[in-house]
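Reminder to self: tokens first, then the designed residues, so the page reads top to bottom the way the pipeline ran.
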């Protein structure tokens, strides 16, 4: 057999968040899409809010991958994702208004699980029962849907093609109603059912596929695939600040399980992080700035949730947590977003270690909920508007010193610097 007969195999690159989500994944996936044939979401669901901006359009995607504005690119919602047909239908309709026809470019895994109206109610009931200890969930039904998936009770997208789908739906709904009764939660499920089944009808019109075959066939043909993460590594179900996490594996390994690709098929791992940190919802945040500095970051960075509108908590960059995320994911290239938000800060701090019980450590403690005092290193701010800059040779020395310090500490190059929300506001370093 000659060498010509050996099929070219390309790899799946993975782009994922290294913090608590909202690092700018949507924007950067949109920027990278021209280099790819297929973009795939592998976990999470409509708890995600991925923003894209170009030609004066600002769009927020929840379930649909962020490659859809590039004609010719296929967008796949993988098996690891959980889908709410109501939210997906709304997304599809708002994109149609912008003239984007998804019938050819969107494909959905038959193995993705469905979020029922009752899952959303279970999410709300569970959060209400937790009182002060609530997770701060987006209340999209994510946790209860993944619980039904692992509990082997869930409904999958492919089930909507079965003749007894309605019976299966009713069976699961009634089970949920029992649980809601135990929570003393007044149920309102039926109010949303019509809309939910309309969403299911819409789903039927799309290409429902065995996405693991599709994606593996792409990589066998040497076509380029990019896996788009949702949430961030510090919200990972295993390695995040448990229990204040989401219910899926947000780390790189999640891309293998959530798309059906082998670990050796993973190529570049793009780890994206903000030049500072944010977090929505409850849970520990060692470098949080509950003061006027944090307030200034929130204002300048427009740090309000893309899904819930909640104000995001803000703080300094945390290198202890960033290095942990880089280790878990095997990050090969870093992408830094939003340094422009720090343009008017005279001093910028970065946590380089933690002090826990008086002892300095460079590791995340098992119980990240215990008091942690960050050990900071200070940097001089650049005090320059960098939003229009197109090349890293234009960037101020102080920002370059900040970038080089992060590269040195993490051992990973920062290949892309995003300096504004727009597609064009992106510096790719050679
Ligand atoms: P995602 O969930 O990771 O896709 O991030 P979100 O879309 O939830 O949040 C990122 C926010 O920052 C959005 O409002 C983006 O438009 C915006 N954004 C992305 N990159 C930049 C940047 O480099 N600078 C500024 N100022 N805003 C950015
Ligand atoms: P993207 O993809 C930021 C947070 C919630 C809550 C916790 C659990 O836009 O980065 P869940 O609804 O999953 O049960 O909520 O996780 N969370 C996010 N925070 N960005 C997200 O997604 C998030 N998705 C979930 O705020 O603290
Ligand atoms: Mg977001």
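Designed residues (430 positions):
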């Amino acid at each position: 057999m000659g060498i010509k007969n050996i099929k070219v195999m390309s790899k799946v690159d993975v782009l994922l968040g290294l913090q608590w989500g909202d690092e700018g994944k949507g924007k950067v996936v949109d920027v990278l899409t021209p280099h790819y044939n297929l973009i795939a979401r592998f976990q999470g669901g409509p708890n995600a809010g991925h923003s894209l901006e170009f030609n004066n359009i600002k769009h927020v995607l929840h379930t649909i991958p962020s490659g859809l504005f590039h004609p010719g690119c296929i967008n796949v919602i993988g098996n690891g994702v959980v889908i709410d047909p109501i939210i997906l239908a709304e997304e599809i309709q708002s994109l149609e208004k912008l003239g984007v026809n998804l019938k050819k470019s969107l494909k959905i895994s038959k193995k993705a699980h469905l979020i029922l109206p009752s899952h959303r109610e279970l999410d709300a009931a569970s959060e209400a029962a937790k009182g002060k200890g609530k997770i701060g969930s987006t209340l999209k039904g994510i946790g209860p849907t993944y619980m039904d998936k692992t509990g082997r009770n869930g409904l999958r997208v492919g089930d909507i093609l079965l003749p007894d789908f309605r019976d299966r739906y009713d069976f699961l709904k009634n089970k949920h109603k029992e649980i809601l009764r135990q929570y003393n939660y007044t149920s309102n499920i039926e109010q949303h059912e019509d809309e939910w089944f309309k969403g299911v009808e819409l789903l039927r019109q799309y290409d429902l596929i065995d996405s693991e075959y599709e994606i593996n066939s792409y990589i066998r043909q040497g076509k380029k695939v990019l896996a788009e993460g949702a949430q961030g590594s510090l919200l990972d179900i295993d390695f995040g600040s448990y229990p204040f996490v989401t219910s899926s594996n947000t780390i790189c390994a999640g891309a293998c399980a959530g798309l059906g690709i082998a670990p050796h098929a993973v190529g570049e791992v793009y780890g994206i992080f903000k030049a500072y940190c944010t977090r929505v919802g409850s849970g520990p945040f060692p470098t949080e700035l509950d003061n006027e500095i944090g307030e200034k970051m929130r204002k300048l960075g427009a740090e309000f949730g893309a899904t819930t509108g909640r104000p995001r908590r803000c703080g300094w960059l945390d290198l202890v947590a960033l290095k942990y995320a880089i280790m878990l994911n095997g990050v090969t290239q870093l992408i830094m977003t939003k340094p422009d938000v720090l343009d008017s800060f005279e001093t910028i701090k970065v946590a380089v270690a933690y002090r826990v019980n008086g002892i300095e450590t460079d590791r995340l403690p098992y119980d990240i909920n215990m008091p942690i005092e960050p050990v900071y290193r200070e940097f001089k701010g650049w005090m320059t508007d960098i939003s229009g800059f197109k090349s890293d040779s234009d960037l101020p020395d102080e920002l370059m010193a900040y970038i080089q310090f992060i590269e040195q500490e993490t051992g990973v190059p920062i290949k892309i610097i995003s300096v504004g929300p727009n597609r064009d506001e992106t510096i790719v370093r050679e």
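The first helix runs from residue 25 to 32.
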